[in-house]
Amino acid sequence: MSKSQPAGQERTGHDATVSTTNRDPDVGHRPPYFRLGRTNGRDYLADLRTRTVHVINPDGTRHHRYHLNGKSLDEFMEAVASAHGWERRSYGGGIKGLIERGMDA
User: Fold this and answer.
1) Which end of the chain has the lower number of beta carbons within 10 A, N or C?
2) Where in the sequence is the domain holding 86, given as residue range(s)?
3) pTM to 2 decimals?
């Protein structure tokens, strides 16, 4: 049996309620978790709710967690690009980046 939701609210997870009228401006309408890219055989996943980036090993375990500490995802992406380079970049670059990633697929 389904339960109706009050206006301005939605259900997520195990009966957790999140207000859609008071969205976090940093999250907006983006999913709270998404892939940033891959380097050194590890996936980098952003968590906008906690403002962290998780580095995931191929076996699914977490290798490291970075706290953004006020930096933007774009700044983080550039720091990783400078330090390691990206094997595959899934975030950033605006429309140009989206087109480039589409042509690489």
Assistant:
1) N
2) 25-104
3) 0.65
